[in-house]
Design goal:
The structure is a single chain. The chain has 98 residues and is an alpha+beta fold. It has four helices and four strands, in the order E-H-H-H-E-E-E-H. It has helices spanning 14-27, 32-39, 46-51, 90-96, and strands spanning 4-8, 53-59, 62-71, 82-88. It has a four-stranded antiparallel β-sheet. A hairpin with a 2-residue loop joins strand 2 (53-59) and strand 3. Helix 1 (14-27) runs antiparallel to helix 2. It starts with a strand and ends with a helix.
Length: 98
């Protein structure tokens, strides 16, 4: 089995990151109406890539997921300085564990 490789996401990756996010959320059983509503939002933007740490995960050169570590300095997040998101394509979940 090929190892999972991580690299920093680039602004040109945002359409792919968006596609992975929608596929991952769909896998987890969210209602279709919620997925459609959520898919109309930006999900991940080039500005987020500049502000946060976003890594694209790939296996044998094939993108399989992404990770976002967001540092939020607003007062509401003083006790929880980091927010994390990790999204993967459904076929990979079977390997990683649901």
């Amino acid at each position: 089995m090929q190892p999972i490789e991580l690299r920093l996401a680039q602004p040109g990756d945002t359409p792919l990151l968006r596609q992975i996010a929608i596929a991952a959320k769909s896998y987890w059983g969210y209602p279709a109406s919620l997925i459609v509503q959520w898919a109309t939002t930006p999900i991940i933007t080039p500005e987020a890539l500049e502000r946060d740490r976003v890594c694209l995960a790939a296996r044998a050169g094939t993108p399989i997921g992404w990770y976002r570590l967001a540092l939020d300095r607003s007062p509401a997040w003083l006790h929880e300085a980091q927010r994390e998101i990790f999204l993967v394509y459904a076929p990979v979940v079977r390997f990683l564990g649901r």
